[in-house]
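Provenance

Sequences were taken from public entries as deposited. Structures were produced by running a predictor on each sequence independently, with no templates supplied. The record for Transcriptional regulator MraZ from Dokdonella immobilis is shown for reference.
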Amino acid sequence: MFQGETAVTLDDKGRVSIPATHREAVSKLSGNRLVATYNPFEHGCLWLFPEKEWEQLRDEVNALSKAKTVHRNLQMKLVGAATPLEPDGNGRVLLPASQRSAAGIEKKAVLLGMGNKLELWSEQAHLAKIRETINEEQITEDMLDLKF
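Predicted structure for Transcriptional regulator MraZ:
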């Protein structure tokens, strides 16, 4: 289970270091194997899944009918772009240049633990998202039962 927010820096080769707080979970959950892909719902973010979590999602997404454009778009962004990653001895993973470019992730980024996955946000996209507030019209029925 991943949680927490960490400011990270990508090196000149496009590698990002998985924080020590998450390395044990990555090793335990996936035998040190991750899969990087696009966040199909929000620009400026890549998703990093432990391999087993990824395989389950991949199979669910691939099972969707190819007759619907939205399904094909989801399959393209998630499955078509999926890239296996394995942290090196220093806990770094090399992110594909195409994914970094499309998400606008440059030197500075933010890594978020989001339960079953990690999210890697461009610094600017993360700041913009965090500054957004949830207004009354956006509150769902499911949210009403939360105890803040």
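Strands lie at 2-9, 15-17, 34-38, 45-50, 83-85, 92-94, 108-115, 118-122.
The helical segments are 20-30, 51-62, 69-80, 97-103, 123-131, 141-144.
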